[in-house]
């Protein structure tokens, strides 16, 4: 099981709109010591969406999804989530009430008018879904099988995702906490460091080694930031091992 993020919309892939979700959601997760395991950018293609959702449902992932839950012909996220689960779409009663409340508050006319009946399509969710409240305009998102679907508009999506993170997903807080320690190895080649990196990952289960090369740093010039990350106790031991097996004078501790 992993924690993933879907960012959906042809306008993102075409460059008509710039994605703002990824850095914001990283910040929301970091504040809760949660770690993102994957991110997927998808267009508004029903087959592609259904395939992607089916895969993450099958893995048992927790997923956050931004975009494509409106009621216009280019919105396919709700329908694709239902198809991925083999479930029908149905009008969620609480979503219906909230949409009609929004219609009345916004002065959009008779709730039974054709236009307002069309708006009810935004409350059509896979059977068995729970709603995600929308503090901006009441039009809810939905959750099902640890997948949480919100609109693409940041002003709506971000507070809705915060609600999900602090509500249904609160039990995951702290599970992504990792300690990270690194050194700066000057004038190094990754191929020379690979055997040590492989050795560390074999010796210290649960520790990941990372290597971030740079060729033009203003202070260190060509160098590699070489480090380990994972649980505190394991990282401390692995980091001591890493430093002990680098040539003397070739490295210095990276700034924290």
- Detail the poorly predicted runs: none
Whole-number mean pLDDT = 95
Distance between the termini: 30 Å
User: Describe the biggest sheet?
Assistant: 6 strands, mixed
What does this entry look like structurally?
Helix content is 38%, strand content 25%. It has helices spanning 10-14, 21-31, 46-59, 77-85, 93-105, 114-119, 154-166, 190-203, 232-244, and strands spanning 3-8, 38-42, 62-66, 89-91, 124-126, 130-132, 141-144, 147-150, 179-186, 208-217, 221-230, 251-253. 32% of the residues are buried.
Describe, in short, the structure shown.
38% of the residues lie in helices and 25% in strands. The chain has helices at 10-14, 21-31, 46-59, 77-85, 93-105, 114-119, 154-166, 190-203, 232-244, and strands at 3-8, 38-42, 62-66, 89-91, 124-126, 130-132, 141-144, 147-150, 179-186, 208-217, 221-230, 251-253. The protein has a 6-stranded mixed sheet, sandwiched between helices. A 4-stranded antiparallel sheet has the order 10-11-9-12.
Secondary structure blueprint with pairings:
Elements: E1 3-8, H1 10-14, H2 21-31, E2 38-42, H3 46-59, E3 62-66, H4 77-85, E4 89-91, H5 93-105, H6 114-119, E5 124-126, E6 130-132, E7 141-144, E8 147-150, H7 154-166, E9 179-186, H8 190-203, E10 208-217, E11 221-230, H9 232-244, E12 251-253
Parallel strand pairs: 1-2, 1-3, 3-8
Antiparallel strand pairs: 4-5, 6-7, 7-8, 9-11, 9-12, 10-11
Helix pairs in contact: 2-7, 3-4
């Amino acid at each position: 099981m992993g924690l993933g993020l879907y960012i959906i919309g042809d306008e993102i892939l075409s460059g008509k709109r710039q994605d703002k979700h990824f850095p914001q959601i990283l910040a929301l997760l970091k504040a809760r010591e949660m770690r993102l395991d994957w991110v997927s950018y998808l267009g508004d293609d029903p087959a592609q969406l259904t395939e992607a959702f089916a895969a993450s449902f099958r893995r048992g992932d927790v997923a956050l999804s931004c975009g494509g839950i409106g009621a216009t012909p280019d919105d396919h996220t709700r329908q694709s989530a239902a198809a991925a689960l083999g479930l029908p779409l149905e009008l969620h009663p609480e979503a219906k009430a909230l949409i009609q409340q929004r219609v009345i508050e916004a002065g959009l006319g008779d709730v039974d008018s054709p236009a307002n009946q069309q708006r009810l399509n935004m409350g059509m969710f896979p059977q068995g879904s729970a709603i995600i409240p929308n503090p901006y305009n009441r039009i809810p998102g939905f959750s099902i099988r640890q997948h949480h679907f919100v609109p693409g508009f940041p002003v709506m999506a971000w507070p809705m995702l915060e609600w999900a993170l602090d509500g249904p997903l609160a039990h995951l807080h702290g599970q992504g906490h990792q300690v990270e320690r690194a050194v700066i190895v000057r004038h190094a080649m990754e191929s020379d460091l690979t055997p040590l990196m492989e050795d560390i990952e074999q010796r210290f289960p649960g520790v990941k080694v990372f290597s971030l090369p740079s060729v033009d740093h203003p202070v260190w010039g060509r160098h590699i930031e070489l480090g380990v990350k994972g649980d505190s106790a394991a990282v401390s031991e692995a980091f001591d091992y890493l430093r002990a097996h680098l040539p003397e004078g070739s490295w210095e501790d990276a700034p924290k």
